[in-house]
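Lest this sound abstract, we think one record worth quoting, the chain in one-letter code, the fold tokenised, each line plainly labelled:

>
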Amino acid sequence: MNLDLPEALRRVLPVARWEEVTVGMSSSRVYRSTRHVLKVKRTTEPFDTLFAEKEKLRWLEGRVPAPKVVAYLKDATGEYLAVTRLPGVDMSHEDARLHPRRNAELLARALRELHALPIQDCPFDASLRTKLREARERVSAGFVDEQDFDDERQGRRAEDVLRELLGTRPSREDLVVTHGDPCLPNVIVSGEFVEGFVDVGRAGIADRHADLALAARSLSHNYGPEFAELFLDAYGRFLVDASKLAYYRLLDELF
């Protein structure tokens, strides 16, 4: 398809045929060409802005594999973020599904590498102090899609989920640099290597279980529960708290 892009973007991006990316749960429209990925956000929702994702991608450059920022633009119609396209396919792709064991181990290794970054160098706060405040704001503003809750929470109201989160908040956070949403569509793999993480708008300092919970859930959904267990073993079972996995899956319902 041809995209009607603002002049400032047309000067930066080469003429290309674009296809829309429908896999994943991005709040933006996502398009890709052979060389680039373009995200377009035309909503007034103040959360998960493309400006924030742009800043996080630039911080991650040189630290862990991720796309490079090509251009960012905000105008009266919305936000645009153009990045380089990584080679390979995402881990939910049918070609990647042929290697579930390898991918579970690769994802564990990639997250260990990310989680090993020094938190004192990271300027982005995704701790519970920040996330619960944002959760309250999202619930109050009506931005939570209750129809998208996991099966075990279908029929519940966002206010009830928030109340449970506040009442069961862990007393301690094991803080690391996290991706924030390391589900399989956000991990690009090529052969024996993870080429990089995409959709890093939620990245920041948080409990490691914020990543482990969503990665394990995505592996279970896409490959089967045995591969979620393999992933947790490969990451380091001694670091895993089952109650925190459940808590951060609950927290994700409001985002």
About this structure: The first strand starts at residue 19 and ends at 21. The chain has two domains: 7-84, 89-252. The two ends are 30 Å apart (CA to CA). The CA atoms of residues 57 and 247 lie 27 Å apart.
